[in-house]
Amino acid sequence: MPPSSRPPVSPRFRSVAAVLLAATTLSAVGAGPAAAQIPGLPEGLQLPGRQPPGEPDGPPAPEAVWTGTVDDRVTALAFSPDGETLAVGTFEAVELLKAADGEAVRTIKTRSGFATALLWQIESSRVRNDADPTWGEPAGGVLTVGDYRRVTRWEGATGRALSKMSGPRGYVTGLVARPGINHAVLLYATCEDGTVRHWVYDGSTRGTHDAEVVVRPLGDESRVPARGLAMSTNRIAVAFGDPDRDIKPGPVFLLDAATLDTLSPLPEHVRAAECVTFSAGGSYVLTGGADEVGRLSHLPSLADRKFVTGKAEADPQPIGRYAGHARPLNAALAIPAADGEAPDFAPIFATGSGGRAKGGNELRVWRFEPNADAPPDVDATEGGEQEAPTGKVRDLSAIGDFEGPVRSLALSADGTLLAVGDDSGAVRVYRVADLLGESTDEPDDEPAPADEPGDDETLAADPEPAPETDE
Predict the structure, then answer these.
(1) What does the angle CA 41 – CA 43 – CA 47 come to, to the nearest 5 degrees?
(2) Residue 68 near residue 95 (C-beta atoms within 8 A)
(3) What is the dihedral of CA 5, 10, 12, 14, to 10 degrees?
(4) What is the three-class DSSP state of 97?
């Protein structure tokens, strides 16, 4: 029988928390001073120490379109391809609700522990047989569910079971997919056993299937759980961390989607890594962890690959840390740019936090604003190294009245609705336009007086505390 309590919850308490800033910069990654320094002040003056979380600072919190509840924790969320239905993963079931008002549609009884990963997409068949109503393109798309030791596929419109993929040990923690040749579906899953699994199947497939490829990026002997999964074109990002020993470092890797070979590591978290997402344009990757920070890296484009040096992929360039949360950063996703704006001109992210101690259960929406005068990338063909863009982070929305840790986020296909789920069983849906709101205004061109820091002042994020050791 699957365990009845959700694995990601950690009992450890940490007494320090991040300072919440309405305009926070990302500190430099790598070698640097032991403490953050405020530019323009005498050397040795540092940012104040981290304080216990309270009401989030910054922009006002927008109202939710609707709020609902399920019987147990919310462990995963996914919108239907048409944006009309929201799937809510919880214990032994997936609840389907109307995205417009939260009205119940139906319940899919999964009966294998918590539904910890959801993916809802259109899947087509290579061959159509109109005489057989069970064959062909599933109505309403396919809802793929990852739970305890398996992955199952369900017809979205009817809740009818389609197929099962077995093999994972422990919970499935992430699902992504992409189309293959001739309507094939390429499905990827991360699991608590530390594996990344890859299935290839036809969209109308039925029955049980084994994974075609299984890899352990941390090595065959490692059992550190894979905690987060994201995909952008031909790259997969996987975050690792043990929720029961979250003071251990949390590594993150980029993998080749075709082969699952490791391409390069991403900046490691001091504590367990919990989540990962690519920016809307795929030029950045953000990871979150139990160390309460998000780590942002710049990914060179296809044109910037270092073929001259013999590498198939240029190394990711670390940018810095987002320190807006005061508790572990559990969930992250990218929000598309406004119409007419380049996808990654100033990438926007939504992040959720909570756990380990009371308070700090938040949703924050923020954007990274590269400096206009940042030095341009050096052409790799000239033998130089690329420089990642520099800039600051601007908080757009901060909502801190969730009763439980925020662990689940989902964005509708048209990018207009954001769903948020927490450990209390609450589900909220927000309009993305409301979350971006007034704070999308351009900052004033006139600088603030020297003794009154304004939104445009550059402030370095405070340093991470030293990792704790087991007693």
Answers:
(1) 65
(2) no
(3) -140
(4) strand
DSSP string, 146-176: EEEEEEEEEETTT--EEEEEEEEEEEEEEEE
Closest to 368 (Cα-Cα) out of 400, 415, 334? 334
Q: Around 55, how many Cα atoms within 13 Å sit in the side-chain half-sphere?
A: 4
C-alpha angle 265-192-76 in degrees, rounded to nearest 5: 95
8 Å CB contact between 77 and 410: yes
Location of structure tokens 């319940």: 107
Q: Which helix (H) or strand (E) holds 363?
A: strand 357-370
Residue 195's closest CA among 234, 176, 222?
222
Tens-place pLDDT, residues 74-130:
999 999 999 999 999 999 999 999 999 999 999 999 999 999 999 999 887 655 555
- Give the number of other CB atoms < 10 A from CB of residue 169: 12
Compute the half-sphere exposure of residue 45: CA atoms within 13 Å on the CB side of its CA: 6
Query: How wide is the angle at C-alpha 465 spanned by C-alphas 463 and 471, nearest 5°?
Result: 170
The rounded distance, in Å, linking the Cα atoms of 462 and 321 is 9
- What are residue 157's phi and psi, to 5 degrees? -75, -25
pLDDT in tens, 261-310: 999 999 999 999 999 999 999 999 999 999 999 999 999 865 544 443 44
Burial 24-58 (b: 16+ CB within 10 A, else e): bbbbbbeeeeeebbeeeeeeeeebeebeebeebeb
Please provide residue 175's backbone torsions phi and psi, each rounded to the nearest 5 degrees: -140, 135
